[in-house]
Design goal:
globular, protease, alpha+beta, 17 helices, Cathepsin B, Chain A, 456 residues, Pept_cys_AS, cysteine-type endopeptidase activity
Length: 456
């Protein structure tokens, strides 16, 4: 019986079924994957079993306890504070130290809403409407959890940092989806109201008054859900010698400027990216339109370099004792739970499906929407053999159940394919790279993949 329906012809469908059934391996794979998570079947056990946490060069101090961002997109904040504690724990004589992620989370949410409200007003004055790609992009998730390095500089340099015991995680920080939904709802409403006011020729004074009222609603919501950040703190702890220590009363900004900044200066660190797209040459400075969290703050800037430069700079930093914040596409070719492995050999797609998941190169993955930065972590060690890097030790922020009590192993080829940016102190950079920072940045569109936020 034939039909007039379109689509794939019946004889083609039958041919595909015949070819599938003719291969016994396909039937075996079907039997297994039908009742199990395909990713578990894809695992290459021989590759996973060869990974050991022994490295030729490691920072002298790794942070304790292992942090856990839980059900939130705060990895970029966790990775920054984890890098900070690695550097300052010796001077503070701490065996364990964790800074308050909830504290920076609060201020990022508030400042980002203020920045977005200003952006809505500016877009309206440019004649942009909700029907255009730009405003549509800005409204996708106005209260995004994720972020970029320069956003962290803005927050820490303005608000400082505090130990976690002085401002612990709220439930709405550890499980942020509901809070983000509430703020997203109001921000889209606010965008409509502000843009309408601009289009109807309201005065600047009227618009700013309305914006102030909106920001107060956001502040109230954040304070209810996350708590009100302390203006001063007193931190009491036992040092390595079990002696009582006390710092404070002191403001969070004073704590940062006196105890942290002399050792770990946020402003001295630059984001070096690997964007191999032909349209974005190396040795150029880039930024992304409407990518920030603070009006009038430090812009988000990238120095584009070949991937080998990112590796060399990372090794130089670690060899000098400083761990490296980095952004990557964590969801590709991994066996994190429970193995703690990021490796192109970790999953064998060819064995199960008969094809590779690496059909696109890094440039192609960026151009065709297959990959972008999704997660930020910390590199604390590397291993070299015959003068070449072979693997890297990674401090994650997903608790201590995976890998080596929360530490992962990243293979060198995985670094090449899925690492997009590293943050390096200026003292490790060459004069040629520093000269790039003096350029007028090339402005990429707001939706460019290099504007992706670390949020997993």
């Amino acid at each position: 019986m034939t039909t007039d329906y379109g689509g794939i012809p019946n004889e083609v469908l039958q041919d595909m079924e015949n070819k599938f059934s003719a291969d016994p391996k396909n039937r075996l794979a079907q039997n297994v994957c039908y009742t199990a998570n395909p990713k578990q079947i894809l695992k290459n056990q021989s590759s996973l079993n060869n990974q050991v946490h022994v490295f030729s060069c490691k920072v002298p101090t790794e942070g304790k306890p292992m942090s856990n961002q839980k059900a939130s997109g705060r990895c970029w904040i966790f990775a920054c504070l984890n890098a900070m504690r690695c550097s300052v724990m010796p001077s503070l004589q701490c065996d364990e130290l964790e800074f308050s992620q909830n504290y920076l989370f609060f201020w990022d949410k508030l400042e980002r809403c203020n920045y977005n409200l200003d952006s809505y007003i500016e877009c309206a004055r440019r004649g942009e409407t909700f029907e255009g790609r730009l405003v549509s992009h800005l409204l996708t998730s106005p209260s995004e959890d994720g972020g970029q390095w320069d956003m962290l500089v803005n927050l820490v340099e303005k608000y400082g940092v505090i130990p976690k015991v002085c401002f612990k995680d709220a439930q709405s920080a550890a499980e942020s989806r509901i809070l983000c939904g509430i703020i997203n709802n109001k921000m889209r409403e606010f965008c409509k109201r502000l843009q309408t006011m601009v289009f109807e020729k309201a005065s600047d004074e009227e618009i700013q008054k309305e914006k102030s009222s909106m920001l107060q609603q956001i502040y109230t919501t954040l304070s209810i859900c996350l708590g009100t950040p302390p203006k001063t703190i007193t931190w009491e702890y036992y040092d390595k010698s079990k002696k009582y220590q006390k710092i404070g009363p002191i403001t969070p900004l004073e704590f940062y400027t006196t105890k942290i900044k002399p050792i770990f200066n946020m402003q001295d660190k630059l984001c070096i990216v690997n964007d191999p797209r032909a349209k974005n040459p190396y040795n150029k400075l880039y930024t992304v339109e409407y990518l920030n969290n603070m009006t009038g703050g430090r812009p988000v800037l990238y120095v584009n370099q070949p991937i080998g430069v990112l590796k060399e700079l990372t090794m130089k930093s670690i060899a000098d004792g400083e761990a490296v914040w980095f952004g990557c596409d964590v969801g590709k070719y991994n066996s994190i739970k429970p193995d703690g492995i990021l490796d192109l050999k970790a999953l064998d797609y060819n064995l199960v499906f008969g094809f590779s998941a690496l059909g696109l190169d890094k440039e192609g993955r960026l151009n065709y929407g297959e990959s972008l930065m999704t997660h930020a972590m910390l590199i604390t060690a590397f291993h070299k053999e015959n003068g070449e890097s072979t693997k890297w030790r990674i401090e994650n922020s997903w608790g201590d159940s995976d890998g080596d009590k929360g530490y992962l192993i990243m293979s060198d080829d995985w670094f090449s394919e899925f690492v997009y940016e590293v943050v390096i102190d200026k003292k490790f950079l060459t004069e040629e790279i520093l000269a790039v920072t003096k350029q007028t940045p090339v402005v990429l569109p707001a939706w460019d993949p290099m504007g992706a936020l670390a949020k997993l």
